């Protein structure tokens, strides 16, 4: 929630009490320099003992509520027919309106099953933007390709467009005509678009996409891993929705798709995922593969404790103080950074605050990975772990050629209900310092490069050991314990 102070300034207020805590550790600069080198200049390979604030992701890292923790105590650990499963099915029916539920161990497992069942080799998936695991499954499990049909504004990092996650309708119709509707297994809308900077799509756009899909009889799938945030932003930004509740907006969104799936690690604050639909045929076709890859229908690879917590999480995710918790913190940080000239993606969206590394580090060419370099520099200057979302996160093409990402972003993810305003103030301060010393930051090059999803395990080195110089300058200002 946003509260106005007597000075006129607005701040995001945490609408929860923190009653269970996890200690974090202040990691001095010398240790940070050693840790990032040991991690091959890849923030995925840092150990959390070497991290002050972990903003790598909001996936599986949200704070659970007291009611979620309590629900875990009454889990029914049965292989088949678990009461816990039926509680989740009831919650999904009530909140989202779906009759059929297919639980899976996490979001990418849903992508695997959907692509395996719905795609034919060489099919095309049309989407507002890909996510890394989605693209991998479209190519590997579905033996096809994915085509992004975002509006041009999506790639403008200094935009005021409220819905950069929209699909471009003309491009959508053109793609269907060019490829032929029988080659398109489904259209996928990601709410909110992760790799474009957590940008939402509008209800108006979703309705228009629905109409096109109905006209050509192409299934519409929503990846709702951050659907509550998308709905919260629709309420804030779309005319006609200001008086609707987040729950009503979510319900309206999901009523427009044929298949819905999500990573429960995000919106529902547990470790799991699910596919839901009202279509008997899709349900039956996917269901047969569930015990093969995930587990029996009534647990799908999740622990029943997590299923219980998910049933509560599905009901809690549309509470505006849950749906808006990270959105408002992200907005606060993004506005603060914009005021001091640090280039961030605008307008701020869900998931995280995103630095535009191309603008932050114009002297580093894409083949030296500016976003990867900035994530390293941020860790060195603050102990905050962020994630590269640029060319390192984009694998080479089949002939081994580098594919330069559309955007070079550094994502500082905001897990729900985890960090406080003082953490954000600290982060803003260190980012300012870094921006003023950006000339010290250099590029990276691969030392070990895996052939697929290379950003997870790839190891790199700092070209010209620029990290040492940055550390030296930092120590002069903040001391060896800074
Ligand atoms: N779809 C979206 C939009 C996601 O953001 C993610 C995961 C997935 C699918 C896959 O779900 O991790 O449960 O298998 N995003 C995480 C992130 C990993 O850090 O943004 P998963």
TrEMBL record:
InterPro entries: ArAA_b-elim_lyase/Thr_aldolase, Beta-eliminating_lyase, PyrdxlP-dep_Trfase, PyrdxlP-dep_Trfase_major, PyrdxlP-dep_Trfase_small
GO molecular function: tyrosine phenol-lyase activity
UniProt superkingdom: Bacteria
SUPFAM superfamilies xref list: PLP-dependent transferases
PTM-bearing positions, type N6-(pyridoxal phosphate)lysine: 266
Keyword Lyase among UniProt keywords: yes
Keyword Lyase found: yes
Keywords, alphabetical: Lyase, Pyridoxal phosphate
Any one of the GO BP annotations: aromatic amino acid metabolic process
Domain Aromatic amino acid beta-eliminating lyase/threonine aldolase: 54-429
EC number: 4.1.99.2
Pfam families reported in the protein's UniProt record: Beta_elim_lyase
Cofactor(s) this protein cannot do without: pyridoxal 5'-phosphate
Family according to the record: Belongs to the beta-eliminating lyase family.
PANTHER family, per database record: BETA-ELIMINATING LYASE-LIKE PROTEIN-RELATED (PTHR32325), TRYPTOPHANASE (PTHR32325:SF4)
Name of the protein in question: Tyrosine phenol-lyase
Name of encoding gene: tpl_1
